[in-house]
Design brief:
By secondary structure, this protein is mainly alpha-helical. It has four helices and no strands. It has one domain. The longest helix has 25 residues. Keywords: Membrane, Transmembrane, Transmembrane helix.
Length: 87
């Protein structure tokens, strides 16, 4: 395990302890993320109906890649955090 992987594991461990501190908070956060995804999906499908297939396929592919590649998952996580901060 590389040094970067050890640092990322430490960060994930801290996040996991905070997020899963209570099950209610975790479930609320989970539904909040699903709601945001649904809103983005509705917007894209209404504005660009020709891209509806990609709206479904892209998160599935990103999930598969994230499952096998922790660095990719971390980059996506930080990007989403940055997006939430900017909005």
């Amino acid at each position: 395990m590389s040094e970067l992987d050890k640092k990322i594991d430490g960060i994930y461990s801290k996040i996991q302890k905070k997020v899963t501190g209570s099950i209610a908070e975790f479930v609320a956060f989970f539904f909040f993320v699903i709601t945001l995804g649904s809103l983005v999906t509705i917007y894209i499908i209404t504005q660009f109906p020709q891209h509806a297939f990609w709206v479904v396929l892209t998160p599935a592919l990103a999930g598969i890649i994230s499952y096998y590649n922790r660095t990719f998952a971390t980059i996506i996580f930080l990007g989403i955090l940055l997006l939430l901060i900017l909005l």
